[in-house]
Amino acid sequence: MLLQRTSLERIRASNFKYYLIIGLTLAIGIFLRFFLLPDKSLWLDEGASLYYSDGTSIQDIIATIVNTDTGDRFQPFYYLVLHFWRQLFGSSEFAVRSLSALLGIGTIVVLSTTAWQLYGRKHALWLTLFLSFSAYGVYYSQQTRAYTLLLFLASLQLYFLSQILPQKNVRGTAIAQVLFCLTTAVGLFCSIFIGIYTLALCIAHLLVSQNIKRWLQWWLPVAIACVPAAIFYLASPVATDPTKVHVTPSNQSVIQNIAFVFYGLLVGETYGPPIEQMRGGDRLQLIFNYLPVLLLFGLVAGIIVIGLVRGLKARSPEYKQYRPIDNFFLITFVSAFIIALAFAIVTKFNWLPRHSFYIYIPLSFLLPIVLRFSPRKKTWENLYRLAFIVLLLLNLYANYNYYFEPRYQRENYREIAQYLSKNNSQDTKSVLLYGVPYLLPYYGDTLTIDGLGLDTTKLAAEVSRVTKNANTAIIAISDQAFWEKKRNFDLESSMAKSYKLESHLQLTNFDIYHYVKK
């Protein structure tokens, strides 16, 4: 009896210690996602989210979305969710971003629970550590965009599917299947990339399944559930003419896109060179300036890849039971990557980390495999553990850059609105040539003129018309090089016909010109 009691006490103490550690880890993840949440100005993409989610009725919102020429037309579900969220909590920076933060936290909880069920406590703890510290997860949890909703929906898909994966014998799989179908159907109205992830899950499940009949019983209802979304996409003009929708084209090789995707997924986009600075100038020089931190990342990533290969090949009886689950996540990872690569090559769109949640999830499950131990190889295992811990520290470093380093900030509409409002007068009028007009009154500038629809072939005359022949015209433009290329014009030469350039203020991804009439 005494030995039995002592054993129970040890188990309880061990359980308490584990729950304490995983609880603290989750608390860190919550803190990082809400820390300084309203500190930064909303930027262009977030402004688009507010614009598309604004309206007096659901019909107004849907009409606005389906009539746009950007990829936002394929994300109606997110904008409807954001609309109702704003109805409940308002439209402050904290309010609109808190939706993403909560979804980011929900993603950690769902994936950690799934890992616990499939692999056990140790694997779940390491996965929770990575997800909580992840600069990729933190960054997009503080953005008023659809990315954490996609992560959350994809996490739910995995959780529901995990109820029938090998080594699982859970009752109520019919309920899990219904919920999987519902989540998939809804997710496809949030992004076509949910389709990539779902197809990867389908392929992985097929290849590891020992029961084809059961596989068909699961996936045929899923295919039926996808029909409404398929009709939605095929009914779009894009189905017959891809030029009807604007997507950001890639201006680099697909190899560079691949490298950037995995870099962004592992340590976030604020670890190395700032993205905004990479848009122009000497990229090689900029990369050289950040070479020490990039080499450190490369070293850590290389060690982790070696450790992952070793962990997947481990023959220990302790880990052999997880082989089917390992194969499932490895196949999901490879399938999602290949499908996404083919999609990027065919469509020529700019494949970025933010699009790659379908890779991030299986990658998160594969990473803890690096930490599988063998009594005969302690030195190597200590190295793999050190590499994993350093990876967590690199993510903390990237998070620090995101919070505190101005060079990693996006365009500051708060600052721009204040500047334009302050400089407007009876004889000085400002025009936003490209950007998000919605954000200017949001930050208090009600005087700047929306110039997105101006005819750039006769820009000087158009500016003179909308400013009512004001002596001074202030032209504000976001992402000038992109806009000039898309509209096939040059701002300075177009304005030179009637105006003389007086001054030029260059801000992050934003240019403000003061022109005086000749």
Automatic annotation (TrEMBL):
GO biological process: lipopolysaccharide biosynthetic process
Main location class: membrane
One GO term describing the cellular component: plasma membrane
Subcellular location(s) of the protein: Cell membrane
Residue ranges of domain Glycosyltransferase RgtA/B/C/D-like in the record: 76-231
Record-linked InterPro entries: LipidA_mod_glycosyltrf_83 (IPR050297), RgtA/B/C-like (IPR038731)
Membrane topology: Multi-pass membrane protein
Keyword Repressor: no
Keyword field contains Hydrolase: no
Key words, A-Z: Cell membrane, Glycosyltransferase, Membrane, Transferase, Transmembrane, Transmembrane helix
Any one GO molecular-function label of the UniProt entry: pentosyltransferase activity
TM spans (from-to): 16-36, 94-116, 123-140, 146-166, 178-206, 218-236, 257-275, 287-308, 328-351, 357-374, 386-404
Name of the featured protein: Glycosyltransferase RgtA/B/C/D-like domain-containing protein
The organism of origin for this protein: Chroococcidiopsis thermalis (strain PCC 7203)
Lineage summary: Bacteria, Bacillati, Cyanobacteriota, Cyanophyceae, Chroococcidiopsidales
